[in-house]
Amino acid sequence: MIPVDAFDRTTLVLNRNYQATGKFFTARAAIRNMINGRVKGLDAAGNCVSWTGADLENVEGSPSSLSWLDQTVDLYPDQPCLRSAPNAATGLETRWAVPTIVICTYHFGYHSHKGQSVSLKTLYKMYKGVCQYCLEKVSITDATKDHVFPKSMGGTNDDFNVVLACKSCNGQKADSFPYFNVNGDAVRPRSLHGSMLNVSSVEVQMREEWRPFLFK
């Protein structure tokens, strides 16, 4: 792990739909919001884990005792960390790993805007008639709007939560999340309103694990 200053911006903030909010937390803010339960951190293996609990959302078959507090999550070799002052008795310092990506829980960092639903016709044009799961061209009559983050789990009708899907793929996906296309890539919607972020406009150092969530 690499020690960083408490005010260094180390952490990409995603909303509950796993999309960039346009925010980056400082190392201290990331740890504070983790402790308060307002966010969960993604580790190097893609596990979505709270500060003290074993909250696995993305990886099946992973160990059931993951915790950022105990540092039992998978860490990157260059994982940023905060460190304490040396212990007066032992001279040893404590280090806390700082997640480089956090997912907002509940409505923190997530803002729904009225009037951003998208019609099937517009969605069809946006994705050029290609189902985002099987990646095959479909007719408009076989096309549907699919909620990437299922409505049953709190997903909205906003444009940044829907993709074009053929009827067959839509039925197979059902209420699964996350869901992957035939190439094994997690499907992420495009937005008419720029809900994703270009990191070049922000004074932070780009990390490889951020790229799937950002426009490059």
Verbal overview:
The chain is of the alpha/beta class and 216 residues long. It folds into two domains: 2-111 and 196-215, no CATH class; 120-173, DNA Binding (I), subunit A (Orthogonal Bundle). It is built from three helices and twelve strands; from the N terminus they run βββαβββββαββαββ. The protein has helices at residues 27-35, 120-126, 167-173, and strands at 2-3, 9-14, 20-26, 39-42, 48-49, 80-83, 95-97, 101-104, 143-147, 162-166, 197-198, 214-215. A five-stranded mixed sheet has the order 3-2-8-4-5, with helices on one face. The radius of gyration is 19 Å and the shape is elongated. The two termini are 27 Å apart. The model is unreliable at 109-115 and 193-198 (pLDDT under 50).
Secondary-structure map with pairings?
Blueprint: E1 2-3, E2 9-14, E3 20-26, H1 27-35, E4 39-42, E5 48-49, E6 80-83, E7 95-97, E8 101-104, H2 120-126, E9 143-147, E10 162-166, H3 167-173, E11 197-198, E12 214-215
Parallel strand pairs: 1-6, 2-8, 11-12
Antiparallel strand pairs: 2-3, 4-5, 4-8, 6-7, 9-10
Features:
alpha/beta, 11% helix, 2 domains, five-stranded mixed sheet, elongated, DNA Binding (I), subunit A, 216 residues
Number of helices: 3
- Strand ordering within the main sheet: 3-2-8-4-5
Report the span from N to C terminus. Answer: 27 Å
Q: Measured on Cα atoms, how large is the radius of gyration?
A: 19 Å
Question: From the helix content, strand content and strand pairing, which structural class follows?
Answer: alpha/beta
- Major sheet description: 5 strands, mixed
Could you list the spans in which at least 5 consecutive residues all have pLDDT below 50? 109-115, 193-198
Number of domains: 2
